[in-house]
Amino acid sequence: SAEKEPQIWDAIKFGALLENIVFEEGSTTVDFADGSKTENTRVSYPLHHIDNTAVPSMGGHPKNIFFLTCDAYGVLPPISKLTPGQAMYHFISG
Hints:
The chain is an alpha+beta fold. It contains two helices and two strands, in the order αββα. It has helices spanning about 5-10, 85-94, and strands at about 15-20, 40-45. The longest helix is centred in the last third of the chain and has 10 residues, at about 85-94. It is extended.
């Protein structure tokens, strides 16, 4: 909502890409209360849609990367140290 996430709310305008949404009948207004497709609506927007961003928005190469997962079956270890090759394999494999 505009009250809980004002920057994201303001970033949802022309040029943003929304997924799993429904429009209000006969309009181009998004009905965020409609959960018929999913409760997990997603949006992508350009950084210039957010006020006070760092320009250019680039950093160095990370030393560590953590992938957060939802593993309901306990198959994945809590954390693993991977070689660059292993990381590439698992990233590409999805």
